[in-house]
Q: What sequence folds into this?
């Protein structure tokens, strides 16, 4: 997608320090962190939101979650815990319409979220 900010990060048009990088996804620090660790994991493919995914995205979706778990293990906060969030469309609070997984850690989170 020509004007999508996350496509630009994924394909290097916006140079970014990547936390993780493979054939299917990239991960990078959120610009406005909501926790001591706040990482976004996004597919390289432009997908509007979780709501537009289909059966053909199952492998990619599983890969995003497996990558979140791997980053948590590698960075050493898996045992303390973390939160994974996918804001979806208007009521879900989605503001960037390129599917992304928030990986938040470094503090305790309340539930239900606001
Ligand atoms: P959403 O509200 O769509 O679930 O999350 C979008 C997230 O993207 C927000 O947490 C916001 O801070 C982050 N964000 C928006 N623009 C940029 C950017 O240009 N770079 C980075 N690293 N994060 C961004
Ligand atoms: Zn995109």
A:
């Amino acid at each position: 997608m020509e004007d999508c900010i996350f496509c630009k990060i994924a394909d290097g048009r916006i140079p970014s320090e990547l936390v993780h990088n493979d054939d299917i996804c990239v991960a990078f620090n959120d610009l406005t962190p909501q926790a001591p660790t706040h990482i976004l994991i996004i597919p390289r493919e432009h997908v509007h939101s979780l709501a537009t995914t289909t059966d053909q995205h199952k492998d990619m979706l599983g890969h995003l979650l497996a990558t979140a778990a791997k980053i948590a293990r590698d960075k050493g906060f898996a045992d303390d815990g973390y939160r994974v969030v996918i804001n979806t469309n208007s009521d879900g609070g989605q503001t960037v319409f390129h599917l992304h997984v928030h990986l938040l850690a470094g503090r305790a989170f309340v539930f239900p979220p606001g």
User: Anything to note?
Assistant: Residues 10 and 16 are 9 Å apart (CA to CA).
